[in-house]
Amino acid sequence: MTQYEPMRFHKAWGYEPKPIPVERYTSPDYFLKEKDAVFARKWLNVGRINKIPNKGDYFVKDMRIADTSLLIVHGTDGKVRAFHNMCSHRANPLSWDEEGKCNGKKGLIACRFHGWVYDSTGKLVHVSDEENFPSVNKEENGLTPIHCDVWEGFIFVNFAEQPEETLLEYLDPMLSEITGYPFGDYEHYFSYRIDERVNWKTLQEAQLEGWHLPYLHEKTLALAVASDGQQYRHAAIDLFGPHGVLGSPPPDNFEPSPTGQIAGKFGTGTMEAFGRQRSDEDSQQGPKWRGSFDFYHVFPNTFIGLLQGTFFTFNIWPIAHDHSIWEINGYYPKCNNAGELFAREYSKVGLRDPMMEDCFTHERINSVIASGAKKFIHFQDEELMCRHLSEGVDRCVRGEM
Amino acid sequence: MPDLPAGFEDLEPFIQWAEPTEAGRNSRRFSTSYDELKAFYDVMIKRTDAALTHLNEYPLDELDGQQKNLLYMCLSLTEVAFAVENYQQPDPPYLFPIERFVPEHDRWTDLYKR
To answer: Which of A318, A299, A63 is nearest to A196 (CA)?
Structure first.
């Protein structure tokens, strides 16, 4: 039985085991500070290029945290841009649909209110009844752009007038760890949206540690991870600037269920990927693997979960201090037949049920935490990433990061 | 016209499980008695291998109505499997309400990708 040195991760990453003030979760004032100090400054992932694979495609991203909605456009010139989804005439959202396609070769999009037309680069190309708008200069009234960049198909935006770092600089310490995973070969297979009464950091915390698996998920994921008695030990926790990664330890022996065995015969299932031992072959190409499942957190609100044969993402969007949206998206290699589809579906349901167990805790916590009965919460060593998020946000709020 | 391809007549009594959407499959899972779930599970766990082997002989986007029914019944097994193999009950008490866990992909027009 492996012996783990107590507080190994705190020592390695220079963190003190201090209690965390509950105010960070319950205070509307603190939330307003987070809005300015974090969400108005940091790069935020709004989805993957799979949503807009072709030139002229666009999708709309509601961004309550910035009091706006974004129009993310794959331009006819191939560049992906983000704009406020807002006509320059009277601020009507240009697209009322969640997604669509610009019209024609020129890639035009017209406002449904009074017909002003923009091209896919955001330029205003037509003002209806133009002679009656003597004060409107088309050159100066294009769509309002937001900084936007794409890494490995992940689309990020930044609301700052001038971002403090480029996207690549922001992700840099972590990039080389993930590079090589075949993101571009995978297709979008599932997408969930959960509207929850919970603080956005509480929502993320169950995803920032695997230690709860043998407890909360005793009937599901616990079967596919190693635990020493009841205690789960991460294969690794590594931090990169404000970001970090958890490595999940596979069990010594993993016996798939009868349905899992059928899924395994026809394709790859999530439980099987969780339970899989890493081989030398894995480390020779692609990302640097730490466990059977490596879970990356991109500060402040995005997760990228890598497994053999599937990856999934979480985006957590705050609405208020006690209200958040959880978006879950899953990606798989091209599906060739019914057997592979069955394996994918089993994989998806096997992820969804544990996430419903996670969700159950969110609103329960939210229903009592504002009472003020507890002034602090506590994170142990295996929960270092929870601390890293909370402290990272607090450093931003204090103006130190 | 039978609901299922030739050779799978034995699954006809469970045809109500040929649900095309995830929401349809899981609402049936969460609202069916454990005995009924177990009866469906016991049959499908023996027949899914043969069903998928049959369906694999055809391109996924060219399956006919009977074959799609068979596929949807196999997909229902993925839901029922967790009720039987993991939870041993149809509606575990400490799960977030399934109807608030909204499967946006059910609205996608393509059966299996985008």
So the answer is: A318
Asked if B105 reaches chain A (Cβ–Cβ under 8 Å), the answer is: yes
The first and second tokens of residue A344, run together, are 């994918």
- Phi/psi at A66 (5° precision): -120, 15
CB A224 within 8 A of CB A274: yes
> Contact A174/A245 with Cβ under 8 angstroms?
yes
> Could you tell me if A263 and A342 are in contact, meaning their C-beta atoms sit under 8 angstroms apart?
yes
Backbone dihedral angles phi then psi of residue A191, each to the nearest 5 degrees: -155, 115
Quote the pTM value. 0.95
The SS3 assignment for A239 reads strand
Please name the member of B52, B56, B101 whose beta carbon is closest to the beta carbon of A192: B101
Q: Rounded to whole angstroms, how far apart are CA atoms A28 and A119?
A: 40
Is B70 in contact with B4 (CB distance < 8 Å)? Answer: yes
Strand order in the sheet with B102-103: A236-240, A243-248, A293-298, A302-307, A310-320, A323-333, A186-196, B102-103
Residues A390 and A384: their CA atoms lie apart, in Å, by 10
Per-residue model confidence as pLDDT tens digits over A195-210: 999 999 999 999 999 9
Judged by a CB distance cut-off of 8 A, whether residue B64 touches chain A is no
Q: Any idea how long chain A is?
A: 401
Residue in the block written with tokens 């409107």: A136
Chain B contact for A188, CB < 8 A?
A: yes
Q: Check the CA dihedral A281-A284-A290-A296 and report its sign.
A: negative
3-state SS, one letter per residue, for A101-132: ECECCCCEEECCCCCCEEECCCCEEECCCHHH
Q: What is the pLDDT of residues A344-380, one digit of tens each?
A: 999 999 999 999 999 999 999 999 999 999 999 999 9
Closest chain A residue to the Cα of B62, Cα to Cα:
A337
